[in-house]
Amino acid sequence: MNSSNTLLPRRDWIGFALLAVLLIIVLPLALDAFRLNLAGKYLTYAFVALGLVLCWGYGGVLSLGQGVFFGLGGYCMAMFLKLESSDPESTRIQSTPGIPDFMDWNQITELPWWWELFYSLPFTLLAVVLIPVLFAWVIGVAMFKRRVGGVYFAIITQAIAAILTILIIGQQGYTGGVNGITDLRTLMGWDIRTDAAKQALYFVCVALLFLCLLVAQFVRNNKVGRLLVAIREREDRVRFSGYDVANFKVFVFCLAAAFSAIGGAMFTLQVGFMSPSFVGIVPSIEMVIFCAVGGRLSLLGAVYGALLVNWTKTTFSESFPELWLFAMGGLFIAVVLAFPNGLAGLFQQHIAPRLPNWYRSGPPTVASAAPAPQPPLAEPSKPTASNAGTL
Amino acid sequence: MFSEYSGSELVSIFAMQGFAGLILFAVLVLMALGLAIIFGQMGVINMAHGEFMILGAYITYFTSMLFASQFPDLFAGYFFVAMALAFVATFALGTLVEWSMIRFLYRRPLDTLLATWGLSLILQQFYRSVFGAREVGVTIPEWMMGSYAITDTIEIPINGIFVMILTLVIATWLYFLMYRSNWGKQVRAVVQNRPMAAAVGINTEKVDRLTFGLGCGIAGVAGSAFTMIGSTGPTSGQLYIVDTFLVVVFGGAGSLLGTIVSAFGISQAQSTMEFFLSGSMAKVLTLLTVVGVLMLRPQGLLALKIRK
Amino acid sequence: MKHPPPPLDRRRRRLTGWLAALPLSLALGQGVVAAPPPTAEVNSTGLAVTDDSVTVGILHSVTGTMAISETGSVQAEKLAIDQINAMGGVLGRKIDYIQEDGASDWPTFAEKAKKLLVNDKVAAVFGCWTSASRKAVLPVFEQYNGMLYYPTFYEGLEQSPNVIYTGQEATQQIIAGIDWVVREKGAKTFYLLGSDYIWPRTSNKIARKHIEKLGLKVVGEEYYPLGHTQFNSVINKIKLRKPDVIYAIVVGGSNVAFYKQLKAAGIDMTKENPLVLTISVTEDEILGIGGENIVGAYAAMKYFQSLDNANNAAFVKAFKAKWGDDIVIGDVTQAAYLGPWLWKAAVEKAGSFDVDKVREASPGIELTTAPEGYVRVHENHHLWSKTRIGRAKRDGQYELVFETEELMEPDPFPEGYQ
């Protein structure tokens, strides 16, 4: 296994550098403003996929409700931006100027107290991360302390996603309902809709993504990371060794929630609105596929997976909208059956062995082709533990 | 709210509401039985369950068209033929899916979740391409429409009675199949101890395949029955999925009885709350209650297996 | 995009063009297309216009849950474009269209809208169906100054300079309908029912205010989540309260379930006890519900496929010829059909494809060839149109029972109803 002392051993460093070159230099040069903005949007999904790599790939906790945290972070940011664009001057045609338009249509005459909190940017930035994390903490503690795991946990996260969607759509006076919170214009006076702004936001998104990647890398190379792998493989043994398994699971679940929330906030900034269609079951499952395609054990794979799947979706849906759904369904099946470690797994199997030795520091990795057999109702099968150090 | 009604009127209303709850119970059980078999007995999550149901519904649609044009005199009885055909078709598709995909994933339940989700996308698009994006209307025979008046003021929808009887028949049949037949014994053996079952000569692969097919077949029959009460379109399967999963998980894996009990609880809670509160709130409260109970008792109400 | 030719050239070309056109048109009368005005004249904002073609966008859901409803709109818009092209196009230019799939996903709608406006530089977009998709694309249209023709009947409360709303807004559908049912059927009590999102809630709010203004009673108001399929409880409640009218705004898959279960519960709508009045069931929805399940219900729309006038006869015939004999045409489909015609009329009045000029020219545009009879564009970008009540028949068509004498004025921000 890789040395645990260095944060970025050589092989990982090269991978990071390549990604940095791609995102910071190649894409901005190659794409026009519209497509660069699309790339920025795909990168926000990468945050969620990154969280899932830690949570599911390393920790064995599959959450099918990451949309909840993506949405919570996104809605917090949207509330701030909406309040800013609902100043009394621009809303003077409303019955009650100074409040968001959807509140006006629902005959609400004053801002609820919990909306007023979002006038402040520092509070919003804190809320974007803290509220989803708090939510994740509550769910995690309730579930993991009682040793709910695996399939049950996945389905319960689905139920939670469904509940939150219904609540948001139903309380349309306070949340904008099924339309979502739209028409967001400026951030502290800076117009976020111009091409220049979208470019700047793209780079902010890339910077935050790298920050999260480093945090994830740190967690993974740390003792925590190894414990997570151990929990995934043999939870009972870890428990018997004296560790409180639940705490680790809660930690990684909250971390994944935090990443997703940041992604959600960046999404709101780049796309200009947030709606409950990102909170529900379908988008949450799609976010899992980004993670799976890239390789559920690979941090960089999460980013590539998100970019690749979304880019393919946009291209296909322009030319062959009907064919796309067949392709996406087929992708799910193929990833699960044929290449369970995603693109990163393919890379490990076929390309890495051919690279020069200096690239690979440390003992050669053992990339296994077939998933190892597991006891029933256990977590997803994965390659042997020594492979856990690959990107 | 109740002051302006006479005693007998109130009795009628509560009786009808009770039946509404029972109908909802039957609907939930019918939806969930197919999934419970597959999930409970085999540990496989079939996210395409809704799409199998809709396949049954489409087959019913075609049968109705066939009878309307070829055998108009027999139209009144076409529904039973349609259900039989639906069972056969979904059973066949189920075994095909099992053979091509599921059997590689038995020890990876989370992966089956993803793979079957992919399958559901493919099926949805297939329906859309073949049958069109629009919903299709299935014409029901006359005798199945309308309601049956037990007394002057208490009326029960006939399709509700039909669904209840159907559910009873299927549940009883399943019980005998699982607990009183040789094949059921084999299935239970494979579930409890696969290597030993194989060692004593049970063809575990065939058992798995038939069980999956059976679960899908029941889903097809459920979908066929639901043409009486719901819509039939490429995406209609999505309407049933979340409820079905919750019923199965709430009841506890590995226990068909648990599924039935949980369906009863959820249906009564939901229909009672719907009566006194508004629809959306009732749904949210029901979901919250289920999630809450699951957090307290994660293995479900009547789990027979020790969960990890 | 062509560069504008140098001024002298342009004037000379224009002069030549008009000189040529004059005797030609005098000789052959109307219907003959003169040499089309040069591109530089009709396009000063860099839209996708050439000397013989102009590009527009079609933005609807071809996949996903909304595909069920939006298919009709796409078909109608394509038919209108074909017919306009057969007549010589707009300003002598053939209409090309780029069709994008919104995939029933609002962010995708926004993304595709931006692509159409910014990358493809289309002159107009015919699209959207749900309010959510319209709300998602609205900032894009306002930022890039595009023009959207939006066909669905909706809740109002909006009036954008970049949208022309060819469907009715809530007051046009609701108020006349309630007045009719009170006047003709003597209704006194109402039970309001809807799917839980903005359109039914806002519509019911307007309905309630109007009902109470007339001094009548609302005995119940309920909402069910989108996709809900079990309505037996609310049907029991309705039986308990015994309203004269069930005012139903149920949408999507729930529609089918509701009407099937209503009929199964023994409520025979033909007996009108209670009477069912809806604003959300068009001929398209009846395909899924089944005529026998909804026979006897009343719907308040502005168009029914069964309307008996020359325009509609020709329209239905052309529609069936192009898309199949079994096709049905609902209110939204017809409203979508109006879009390209209204755009063509505005462009020809303005003499230009520029969105600002089209916008200026739009109010007051009349269409006497509309299948619904006659419409006129209001300053608030909605249409003057009649309200009609139809009764559902077993074969899935509506039978017209009432239409307003006058055109109803669109009022997206109704005073006293907010």
Uncertain segments of chain A are 362-391
Work out the count of structural domains of chain B.
Answer: 1
Question: Could you give the order of the helices and strands of chain B?
Answer: HHHHEEHHHHHHH
The structural class of chain A is mainly alpha
> Biggest interface between protein chains, with counts per chain?
A-B, 52 and 47 residues
Largest sheet of chain B: 2 strands, antiparallel
Beta-strand proportion of chain A: under 5%
Side-by-side strand order of the widest sheet of chain B: 1-2
Percentage of residues in strands of chain B:
under 5%
Determine the oligomeric state from the structure: heterotrimer
Q: Major sheet of chain A, described briefly?
A: 2 strands, antiparallel
Number of strands of chain B: 2
Number of helices of chain B: 11
Q: Structural class of the helices, strands and pairings of chain B?
A: mainly alpha
Report Rg of chain B.
20 Å
- Report the average pLDDT across residues of chain B: 83
| Biggest sheet, spatial arrangement of strands of chain A | 1-2
Give a structural overview.
The complex is a heterotrimer of chains A (391), B (308) and C (418). Chain A is an all-alpha fold and 391 residues long. Chain A has a domain at 10-277. Chain A has 16 helices and two strands. In chain A, helix 1 runs antiparallel to helix 9, helix 6 packs antiparallel against helix 12 and helix 10 packs across helix 12 (245-271). Chain A starts with 9 loop residues before the first helix and ends in a 40-residue tail after the last helix. Chain B has a two-stranded antiparallel sheet. In chain B, helix 2 runs antiparallel to helix 3 (78-100) and helix 10 (256-276) runs antiparallel to helix 11. The model of chain B has no long low-confidence stretch (mean pLDDT 83). Chain B is built from eleven helices and two strands; from the N terminus they run ααααββααααααα. With 308 residues, chain B is mainly alpha-helical. Chain C has 418 residues and is an alpha/beta fold. Chain C folds into three domains: 1-35; 36-168 and 311-384, Rossmann fold; 170-301 and 387-403, Rossmann fold, CATH 3.40.50. Chain C has a seven-stranded mixed β-sheet, with helices on both faces. Chain C has a five-stranded parallel β-sheet with strand order 2-1-3-4-5, with helices on both faces. A three-stranded antiparallel β-sheet of chain C has the order 11-12-13, covered by helices on one side. In chain C, strand 11 (366-370) and strand 12 (373-377) form a beta hairpin. The relative contact order of chain C is 0.13.
